[in-house]
Specification:
Distance between the termini: 31 Å
Shape: globular
Number of strands: 7
Order of helices and strands: HEEHEHHHHHHHHHHHHEEEEHH
Length: about 325
């Protein structure tokens, strides 16, 4: 704990007490589990029996408001609104990503230098975006401790005002207006359904929070692993050089070895050690109880259930004795 090896600490708890056990964390009765069937049960099958930690929700509400990250009916309504951005037709449009990918790759020097400061690769970030990201980081750090998200809201509100104005013009001029955007923009699409600027702001921030770091952290972790496994890097490069057609959604899906590298990175360097939910009614977990640990476990209302996502991804019973090794072929 003193060395901040928290993930190793969580692993050691499950090795010592079993894959489902109960303890008390800061006075909160908590059931900890790394049983895949229990994680699936809480996260999907019986998700209506649980809510996020109320303390965390209260801390983030001034920043995020009611949005897709909320619980209950608000989450379901918000999820239905943003779901269309994830449909295959939108994911298949990889051409619009090429501009940004090419721009990023062009920043890399061709001199063969190994160590490159990332801030040197992105010298032309507009000042407004930099200020927003700084305010965003500060707002998250001080959430629940008296911090104010006003600068974050001011920046987003400018874009919300633009979207509301443009979609209003579309309604007045018709779909053939030159202001109509040809590609899907989440904010613009939400503005067609939500005319309240504050509500629209919160919906956008609810999507931005998980989208902001998830992909960038994953890409960074993938590069971290590939830099330490040059043979895998070489193999991926050979495959990429053999691609003699434009990249498409279908082509990307067919590059199985690239996908295996991404999945193994997520397994080995996961985004979080655990996910906590609070039971809002008496319920149960399907596994972990009884003398053999295979029976159901009663979960009383108010009990916290900690899903050990890091633990299940480092469980030797699932992944084998080489669980700590980076092996995309597994």
């Amino acid at each position: 704990m003193k060395n901040r090896h928290y993930f190793k600490l969580y692993e050691s708890h499950f090795e010592r007490y079993g894959k489902t056990f109960e303890d008390s964390i800061r006075g909160q009765k908590t059931t900890n589990t790394i049983e895949p069937v229990n994680i699936q049960h809480v996260a999907a099958i019986a998700c209506d029996d649980y809510v996020k930690d109320p303390k965390r929700t209260r801390a983030l509400t001034p920043l995020l408001g009611p949005c897709v990250l909320s619980d209950g009916p608000i989450r379901k309504w918000s999820r239905a609104l943003v779901k269309s951005v994830f449909v295959r037709a939108e994911l298949s449009d990889v051409d619009r990503l090429a501009t940004f990918t090419d721009r990023f790759l062009n920043y890399f020097p061709a001199t063969g230098r190994c160590l490159i400061p990332m801030n040197a690769l992105l010298p032309n970030i507009p000042a407004g975006i930099t200020e927003f990201l700084q305010a965003w980081t500060k707002a998250l750090r001080w959430a629940g401790n008296g911090g104010t998200p006003s600068k974050v809201h001011q920046y987003i509100d400018q874009h919300v005002e633009r979207a509301l104005s443009e979609t209003r013009e579309e309604d007045e001029t018709g779909s053939d207006s030159p202001t109509v955007r040809k590609r899907y923009v989440l904010l613009d699409e939400l503005a067609k359904r939500i005319r309240d600027p504050v509500q629209l702001r919160y919906q956008v921030l609810g999507v931005f929070l998980p989208a902001h770091n998830s992909t960038s952290v994953l890409v960074g972790n993938v590069l971290f692993e590939l830099a330490r496994h040059p043979s895998i890097w070489t193999r991926l490069r050979q495959i990429s050089l053999q691609v003699d057609e434009d990249l498409s959604f279908e082509k990307l899906k067919s590059l199985a070895e690239f996908r295996y590298v991404v999945l193994e990175t997520i397994r080995l360097i996961g985004p979080a050690a655990r996910v906590v939910r609070i039971a809002i009614r008496d319920t149960f977990l399907p596994s972990g109880g009884g003398f053999d640990g295979k029976g159901p476990v009663f979960v009383a209302k108010g009990t916290a259930v900690s899903l050990g996502t890091w633990g299940v991804q480092h469980d030797g019973d699932i992944w084998g004795e080489d669980v700590q090794e980076f092996k995309p072929e597994r």
